Structure formats: C-alpha cells, structure tokens
Amino acid sequence: MNDTSMKMRLLSFILLSGMSLVTVACSPDNDPLTDGTVIPAPDPGEPDEIPDNSTMNRNITIRAGSNSFTATLEDNEAGKAFAALLPMTVNMNEMNGNEKYHNLSGNLPTNSSRPGTIRTGDLMLYGSNCLVLFYATFSSSYSYTRLGRVNNPDGLATALGNGNVTVTFDINN
Fold first, then answer.
1. What's the confidence (pLDDT) of residue 135?
2. C-beta contacts of 136-140 below 8 A and 24+ residues apart
3. Confidence at residue 42, expressed as pLDDT on a 0 to 100 scale
4. Which of 3, 56, 120, 124 is deepest in the core (most CB within 10 A)?
5. What is the pLDDT of residue 31?
C-alpha cells in the first residue's frame, strides 16, 4: 500500500469518526436525563401561558457572560414550546468549533428539515430535545427544527468562546 492510499484511508476514518460524534452527542438516545416526555406547546387559552402568535412576544435575550444578544423565535409550535420554558440558564457544550448544544430534560414539538446552510446565530433543535446555538456559518446535511435566530450575531463566536459556556435565554418584556 502506498503512502497516498494510506493517508486517504486515515483521512476517511477521521472524517467518519467525527461525523458519528455529532450524531451521538445530540442523539435523543444519548441523554440519560431524557424520559421521553414531550413538552407541549402552550395553550393560548390557559391563563399565564404565552398567547397566540398574533400577540406573542417572540423576542428573547441570549446572554453569555457579560454579552447579550437579541433573537427572534420562529412562529411555530417548537418556538412556542421553547418560549414556555424561559427563562432558562444552561451549560452548553462545545461541538465542532461551530456550535454549542444542550440536551433539554424533555422533548419539544418538531418539524425538522435540512437547511443546507447553517448560519451564525441560528437557534435550532436537533432531534426533539437537543438545543443548538450556532456561532459559525457552514454547510450541513443534518436535519433541524428551527427555533429562532439571533438578530445581529456579530461577536457571538467571541462571546461563546472555545469551550463549554453558561448561557441564559429569557423572554424580552
């Protein structure tokens, strides 16, 4: 076997290993805290719940350290269900040099699709319980449910840093 073919096999192995890590880290089957409970979208008729989208404040604040970013939640069931969980402070894990993720304790409604291109500031749901905040733009073949988007993501990568980070999500009043 020549050096070129050995290098190609090694590169293939590394790439395939890296892709499997993405799937395992955010896999709904990989979270021992997840009991399979679905967190329903809020019922607009119930008191103290988020009203329907015609009056729902879809603006949230995302804080990492002393940095704050305004984001807008999607007008979908997953966005409503996520809003019902707020305020929330979570430890988000680093992955792939382009995203932070956190496995929620329950499942949110999903309507996943393949966006093709992930953009800096996208707030997505992988599977039904893996919250993902992207801080770099790249192509992806994975499927996500869109939760929202940071309105102005300038400085987001710097604010989130290189490792795990504590992030607070809160509804703007």
1. 97
2. 136/97, 136/98, 136/99, 138/98, 140/114, 140/115, 140/116
3. 42
4. 124
5. 39
Q: What is the structure's pLDDT at 98?
A: 96
Residue type, 108: L
Measured CA to CA, the distance from residue 153 to residue 136 in angstroms comes to 10
Alpha-carbon Rg for the chain, nearest whole angstrom, is 18
In contact, 104 and 130? CB cutoff 8 Å: yes
Tell me the mean pLDDT per 10 residues along the chain, length 173: 53 45 47 40 40 62 96 96 96 96 97 95 97 97 96 96 96 86
Consecutive H or E run containing 94: strand 88-95
Q: What is the rounded CA–CA span in Å between residue 73 and residue 149?
A: 7
CA distance 51 to 46: 9
- Residue 170: CB atoms within 10 Å: 14
116: left (phi over 0), alpha (psi -120 to 50) or beta: left
SS3 letters across 2-50: CHHHHHHHHHHHHHHHHHHHHHHHCCHHHCCCCCCCECCCCCCCCCCCC
Give strand pairing partners of 91. Answer: 166
